[in-house]
Amino acid sequence: MTIFRRFFYAGATIAALAMTTGPAMATNGQLPTCIGTYKCGMGGAGIGLATDATAAAVNPGLIARMGNEFIISVGWFHADVTGDAHGAQGNGLGPQESDASDFANGSLGVNYRLNDKWAVNLSLYPGGGGASDWDISRTEGKNGQASGVDHAIRWRMFAGQLGVGWAPTKKASYGLGLVVIRSDMKTDSLDNAFNLPTPGPNQVVDVAWGAGVQVGGVWDLMDDQLTFAFDYQSEVFMQRFQKYKNIFNSPVNRPPTTTLGAIIRPTSATRLAFDLKHIEQTAVRTISSEPAAEGGFGWKNRFVYMAGAEHDWDDKLTVRAGWNYGESPIDEGHVFANFLFPGITEHHFTAGGSYEFLPGMEVGFSGYYAPRVIITDDGSGDSFSQNNSGSWLKHRQYGMQLSFRKSF
Length: 408
Prior knowledge:
14-stranded antiparallel beta barrel; 16 strands; mainly beta; 8% helix
């Protein structure tokens, strides 16, 4: 337990550093595509595969399938975002790049067995968010609007889950987790400062806390060659940002998700993972409602498709690869409204591996590339869209993680 505490404090420090230096950029809408080095090497797939201690954040049903271990991951990613805001409200000054481009990433997982059937887990991980920082305001020069507002937003969530797992038999396991999220935001959005009786602050950090639950199960079939898994993450109910009420018409909750998964083992050395996730954006009023002028962003419910493979090259080296696809929740009728939060990436191609350099000690690596996505406002949405038809966003990402894992 002394080792447990030392590495928990070390991991918490790393996670806090990641939280301080930048948000976990949203890649499936406002949510990250994956958690931890191992799952991120597989495109986020594998809710039925107990790869490492952070897997409990993906499905608490895996907790009782793991031994005593911890893992610490640190990483970095780059977001390449370009946009052009023009029309009746857009600045009309041509394409520009967002300066919010490089971000830290980090997670921690600790798993501890109580007996043959029960185990507990603590996971700390990025909960989502997003950011942009334009040199020129999207509305600069229009309607008498001067520079100084409507340039940037930074919204980030960091999550912790305390979970318990139960395996009544060798072929079935279940888990329950309590999720707590700390979220903070700062922005100079026009909606908070222009033509309002009580203008809000400009780039002042506001903090909100929230909580939800997560439940999951895992079942082995066909002599363990086939595994089915289920995970449900409830809506995380957040406090409302008190300093930015003019922007959001409700608390910015994390939307509920439902995931089904299957693991196929064609050989003793190979695992194939296939997951299907549904993100219910419409459960969160301020994300899904419209018009944008009243605090809505018009996001749509989306399915996320994940496929990954894990192969034991030998008794020390494991290699991984994967793919993740989720259609942008921002459609062609809401581009201008979401100009400060361009979470539109869709395909993600991933690879990774881990190597046991000493008994019970592994180092891991994962990397990903999300090709460029372009969305142009077609004027079919609310007044923001109709007045700014032709505004467009481009977004691509790439990044990597390193990890250290130890059994104890």
